[in-house]
Amino acid sequence: MTKFSTPENNKKAMFPVFPVPIYINRLTDDREFNQALVRKVETLRNSDPEGVEICKKEYRTGYTSFFSRNQIQKDAEFAEIAGQILRHGRCFARSMGFSTENPPLNLTTMFGTITVKGCYHEVHRHRNSLISGTYYVSANKTSARIAFLDPKAGFRMHEPGGQTGQTIFSNLEFSVQPQTGLIVMFPSYLEHWVEMQQNDIPRVGITFNLDLVSDEDC
Ligand SMILES: [Fe+2]
Q1: What is the structure's pLDDT at 39?
Q2: What's the CA-to-centroid distance between 203 and ligand 1, angstroms?
Q3: Contact assessment for residue 203 and residue 139, using Cβ atoms and an 8 Å cutoff
Q4: What pLDDT digit, counting tens, does each position of 69-112 carry?
Q5: pLDDT band per the 50, 70, 90 thresholds, residue 166
Q6: How many other β-carbons are positioned within 10 Å of the β-carbon of residue 60?
């Protein structure tokens, strides 16, 4: 446990003692790689009538293989991106203080998502995982943002406001604008949602969950 000792000069101190980490990094700028991945996700949708049918009820206008094919990390077509996601996942996990060796960090689920105009995703968490995230295969500056909710929000009896309201301790929400080639990861407990897609160009992503489990368990 980290302990605080009063500094000798007794000056005022303010510390962000329980920060929530969100990992944002550029995974690749390789256009051909990403364009090929878009085609693979489209092929996934086109070969998944069961998933398309479930999505009509559960995911409105968009498509996700979460309901029907959420193990695409085991598919040779997605092996390279799975490996790169895992590499970033290990980096993030270690930054949070986790060992990723025993048990190792592994992808437990991975699925493709195509977000089209009018599609959004309500507030949710990813249960039974350590880290969740999305690799944005195709997105632009007007694609639907992913937004996060302060996990302490439910405990607040008063909301900060007024002229002095905007500090690092007052944020209730934080959002990220997806871009092609960007990977965004967060602790799985963190509530988040996807805002409504407003433009006509589909936003394509590969979403995943990571946990500290052996290969045989996932
Ligand atoms: Fe999610």
Answers
A1: 98
A2: 15
A3: yes
A4: 999 999 999 999 999 999 999 999 999 999 988 899 999 999 99
A5: confident
A6: 13
Structure tokens at 123: 């507030």
Ligand 1 centre to CA of 103 (Å) is 24
Find tokens 């301790």 and name the residue. Answer: 169
Stretch among 15-19, 144-148, 183-187, 194-198 having the lowest mean pLDDT = 15-19
pLDDT tens, residue by residue, 167-193: 888 888 999 999 999 999 999 999 999
Domains parsed from the chain with CATH numbers: 23-151+169-213 (2.60.120.620)
Rounded to an integer, what distance in angstroms lies between the CA atom of residue 74 and that of residue 55? 22
Tokens read off for 132:
């969740």
How far does residue 61's CA lie from ligand 1's centre (Å)? Answer: 17
Number of H helices, E strands in the chain: 3, 10
Six token digits for residue 83: 């490996």
* pTM recorded for the entire structure: 0.93
Ligand 1 center–CA 214 separation, angstroms: 23
Q: Tell me how far CA of residue 124 lies from CA of 23, 49, 149, 193, in angstroms.
A: 18, 25, 10, 6
* The pair of three-digit structure tokens given for residue 214, joined into one six-digit string: 């052996």
139 Cα–ligand 1 center, Å = 17
